[in-house]
Amino acid sequence: MNLVHQTPINTTPPDLVRFEGVRKSYDGIHFVVDDLNLSVRKGEFLTMLGPSGSGKTTTLMMLGGFERPTLGHILLDGRPVERLPPEKRNIGFVFQNYALFPHMTVAENIAFPLQCRKITGAAAETKVKAALERVQLGAFGNRKPVQLSGGQQQRVALARALVFEPSLVLMDEPLGALDKQLREHMQVEIKHLQQSLGITMVYVTHDQSEALTMSDRIAVFHDGRIQQLDGPRRLYDCPSNRFVAGFIGESNLVDGLIDGFEGGEAIVRAPDGAVLRAPAVEGAKAGMKVTVLIRPERMAVHNADGPERQNIVRGLIREIFFLGDHLRLSIAALGLDELLVRIPAAQGEGLVANAEVELAFAISDARILTA
Ligand code: ADP
Ligand code: MG
After folding, report:
1. Helix, strand, or coil here: 279?
2. How many whole angstroms from 64 Cα to the centroid of ligand 2?
3. Structural domains in the chain, sorted by start
4. How far is the CA of 58 from the centre of ligand 1 (A)?
5. Is the model's pLDDT at 2 over the cut of 60?
6. What does pLDDT average to over the chain?
7. What is the 8-class DSSP label of residue 354?
């Protein structure tokens, strides 16, 4: 025991939610959530991101109290809540399909969670009014849900989740039904609401750009397990395995064999015989099969003014797509039929399909993944 050191002052906010060894099986055979250990900090926007079937909704339902963990514990503010019913958890919930009550008016829908908590009369009216104003639906209280657009219904669901001033709000793919423009608008609106109200948010989506836009931290789910938990920037720049690299952002994943090492760099052979250099990483050994991640925007068409030490590879341009400000090149190179390269439109002059091209990228922009 070391008594000399004082306990450091803890500057990270305390945890509001803790999953401890949580597992869930619906059929008694297969765990759809497996050994989940996760803390959500007070005031943070945490997103669970993953493909369909990866266990996101199940995890959210267990936190909300609609499903029970088969094993493990869920702590809310330090207290185990596995046996607490949903209405005793002080958690706001926005479900995947809004789940508005069709026979009730907008105001009645929003008042519903208050009734469940025995808040009625003038006190309830004031809260409903404030909730409607907060989502810019002040004039819509008397309408029925069918008389609203998808985006407005979404706002009602949001108001209903916030009306009892919960400290924690859970949202399950809340924007899935909206068109792209409205979805992007609502992403910003929800983020602003979360920040201005100081709520802790646990948000579920399968949309990686939505997760990158909104989150403080993202837990990437796959097969019921968290693959990586990190901030958006780190997830994009330093994915911990091939799954995360492929799921977040656009990526070229090149199969490689490590030939050896030289001054902190690994020398990697691609399937087409090309040799790449990449920063060495822990666990990488000579003779090992690895994946090399190269992001499309990190590559450029090689020109003589580039730095002296960089990776240069040859490829064949298959297709060129014009996207206004940039070009997407689909190139056969490094053993991939479709290596994607994204360059500013101005740098694409003279490029044509079926021509050979030399691509250049920094050694530090080739990232070795061992898993
Ligand atoms: P996600 O939200 O990431 O799409 P889910 O948590 O809904 O994932 O589902 C995870 C797995 O659990 C899937 O294989 C799904 O079929 C299964 N599952 C979800 N809900 C139930 C249920 N109520 N009964 C049986 N299986 C379920
Ligand atoms: Mg789901």
Report:
1. strand
2. 14
3. 15-240 (3.40.50.300), 250-369 (2.40.50.140)
4. 6
5. no
6. 93
7. T
